[in-house]
DNA sequence: TTCCAGTTTCCTGATT
DNA sequence: TAATCAGGAAACTGGA
């Protein structure tokens, strides 16, 4: 099954990135993860957004998308090696990617090539084989089974993101739930909990471009700097484009009862890890 | 099939 | 006035 050749490029205009370091992400609409397909990256990063014009921030955004998409642990990539803008990123060779990101490098390199291809030839399906062929230096892909283009079984969790069906927006299937505009796929493990997601942002400053910050590291007190942006990220992770801070905060408040979070009275956007939250203390790392 | 945990959504009212 | 907080209620999903 050659998915990439059947994938019609459909790029929502809202996915285009036309600003540098957005002060508010509330207007930044993440694409439906349910559209994740082998050409996922080229949809996500619209063809209008040519990687060579990315800011450093957008490079990091792309990296984060790659991590999420391939279920790669953030710790496996030294983000400081990607403190580059789009122009510098595009000038990186296959070897540069391998040096910078190790075994993940080939995946990133391949993804970037797809983006470059699509920005140059919008509407023309990317042929990863062409890239492999054009890579004279033996392309020693360490993930033969993880070639996202080769099959649809790259990763069970990734597969779970592929839509079971492709109902039209107006079809009844999409209206299964009035209050649930997204579909969580079967066999998709519950995965990260919200509080763990928040914790991981706090523990990975490289992945946290000013979204949440520690107020008191030892006490586990933290504050949302860009609440809507965090909600958007959480929504993206859960394939829920309608996530808002209001909804996210409701989920956060449920943690009070379970003592995963504690109330911090009188301070907006401030939360504190509770006794049942694990893994946030420096001594636990 | 049922139950449950963990959200998600919607809502009203209070507070900043 | 808008943003945020608080919490009730119902709905939904995946897993056991």
Automatic annotation (TrEMBL):
GO molecular function, one term: sequence-specific double-stranded DNA binding
Basic residues bias (residue ranges): 177-187
Stretches for region Disordered: 164-187
PROSITE patterns: ETS_DOMAIN_3 (PS50061), PNT (PS51433)
UniProt keyword annotations, A-Z: DNA-binding, Nucleus, Transcription, Transcription regulation
Domain PNT: 34-119
GO biological process: cell differentiation
GO terms for cellular component: nucleus
Superkingdom of the source species: Eukaryota
Boundaries of every ETS domain copy: 192-274
Matching InterPro entries: Ets_dom (IPR000418), ETS_fam (IPR046328), Pointed_dom (IPR003118), SAM/pointed_sf (IPR013761), WH-like_DNA-bd_sf (IPR036388), WH_DNA-bd_sf (IPR036390)
Subcellular location: Nucleus
Primary residence: nucleus
Family: Belongs to the ETS family.
Descriptive protein name: ETS homologous factor
């Amino acid at each position: 099954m050659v998915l990439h050749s059947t994938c019609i490029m459909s790029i929502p205009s809202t996915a285009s990135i036309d600003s540098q370091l957005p002060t508010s992400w509330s207007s930044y609409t993440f694409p439906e993860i349910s559209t994740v397909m082998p050409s996922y990256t080229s949809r996500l990063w619209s063809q209008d957004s040519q990687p060579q014009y990315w800011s450093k921030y957008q490079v990091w955004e792309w990296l984060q998308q790659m991590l999420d998409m391939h279920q790669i642990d953030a710790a496996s990539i030294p983000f400081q090696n990607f403190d580059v803008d789009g122009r510098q990123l595009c000038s990186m060779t296959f070897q540069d990617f391998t040096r910078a990101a190790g075994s993940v490098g080939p995946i990133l390199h391949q993804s970037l090539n797809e983006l470059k291809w699509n920005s140059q030839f919008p509407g023309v399906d990317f042929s990863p084989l062409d890239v492999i062929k054009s890579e004279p230096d033996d392309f020693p892909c360490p993930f033969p089974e993880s070639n996202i283009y080769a099959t649809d079984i790259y990763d069970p969790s990734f597969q779970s993101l592929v839509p079971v069906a492709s109902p039209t927006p107006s079809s009844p299937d999409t209206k299964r739930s009035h209050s649930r505009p997204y579909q969580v796929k079967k066999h998709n493990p519950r995965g990260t909990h919200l509080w763990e997601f928040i914790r991981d942002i706090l523990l990975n400053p490289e992945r946290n471009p000013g979204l949440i910050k520690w107020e008191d590291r030892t006490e586990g007190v933290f504050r949302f700097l860009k609440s809507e942006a965090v909600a958007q990220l959480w929504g993206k992770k859960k394939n829920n484009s309608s996530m808002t801070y209001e909804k996210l905060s409701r989920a956060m408040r449920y943690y009070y009862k379970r003592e995963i979070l504690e109330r911090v009275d009188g301070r907006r956007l401030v939360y504190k890890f509770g006794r049942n939250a694990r893994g946030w203390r420096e001594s636990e790392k």
